[in-house]
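fwd from M.: "can u put these together and see what the complex looks like"

so here's what she sent:
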Amino acid sequence: MNTDLIIQNISQHIHLDKTETDFFISLLQTKKLKRKEFLLKQGDLCKTENFIIKGCLRTYTIDDNGFEHIVMFGIEDWWVGDLYSFLTQSPSTYFIDALEDSEILQITKVNLDKLFERVPKFERFFRLILQNAFIAQQQRINQNLSYSAEQRYLDFIAKHPNLEQRLSQKQVSAYLGITPVFLSILRRKLSQK
Amino acid sequence: MNTDLIIQNISQHIHLDKTETDFFISLLQTKKLKRKEFLLKQGDLCKTENFIIKGCLRTYTIDDNGFEHIVMFGIEDWWVGDLYSFLTQSPSTYFIDALEDSEILQITKVNLDKLFERVPKFERFFRLILQNAFIAQQQRINQNLSYSAEQRYLDFIAKHPNLEQRLSQKQVSAYLGITPVFLSILRRKLSQK
DNA sequence: GATAAAAATTAAAGTAGTTTAACAAATTAT
DNA sequence: ATAATTTGTTAAACTACTTTAATTTTTATC
């Protein structure tokens, strides 16, 4: 199991000794996902939180008209999952699937609770992770309220320069909240400037 | 100092003994805000996290055209503040002011860090608070992507039936991401049904 | 390497939501 | 109580973005 990335990620926030590290690793499971394979479907219970060590995934909904809306992308070094379904063990409203062949490390709710009990420092770790995610989401909400589609697109590529290359325009437009047609129009307009 | 509400709030998530409770309370300060008074302005450092024991506040930005966009309301039993500015001690991008005469309990970063050190259980408490906030924000992002203005309005009043009565339509429209004129049109249309 | 399937482009018509402006109603200040 | 200010309403013109549909380009599959 390739745990280097997750251990390095954790050590940026809290210090673990050897025993704690080994205990944590013992709670993880590896899973590989082929492109287009689902990690979670609407109606499923989200049984694990998932740390991405390789690849790219998306969390999205499908509305009544069949359109997809992406609430987040996840790449290496990020956590994905439906936190609400995970915590309450109720059916998820989200789909999660792989946009590239991917590899994740999984931890179940039972094991995460064990972890919090045995190594309470992890409460801190997940608090810090959540803080960052909360701040990023708040910024996105503000931009959805105050920016035009063009501004949101420019901000997206500025903030995630490497990510855009890994995504189709269709995925980007589903994240920005516009149609693929309009994103294409925007891009032409911008390239003519 | 009226600490009943905050202690009750905390006890829903973690158990505190008398000493811990007293220590926590010793770190708090009370502040009263008159209607329209600012708790934070763009460019200020956010020096405290704030628990509302009475009243109603809003966190918002003002865009280049002078329009206000509300990222969250806060009422009794909620925390407000600019978490990013608070954590990094960098200038805030948000304004926070009182929509009603309000009363809050404040804790500084120094005292919060002291609290985490002396009573690590509070790491858990804030993790749980953040989890709920994260989930709520994710739902809002999804709705901003997939719902029409009418659907967002109906969802808002369904989800916060008591809150709408305390807000002007102008505030509601700034939260929904539409103009006050259009909200008025929507309301007429809905009342005619 | 050919074929099928999906993604991107372009144009033209359509619509949800904005803008402006004038007025009415409600709230706040004196 | 009155005046001043802010909020809400209505209508009409406007615009950012959508929809539909046809064509081209790219990617996936056998």
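replying to her w this: Strands of chain B lie at 29-33, 38-40, 48-54, 56-62, 68-75, 79-80, 95-98, 102-108.
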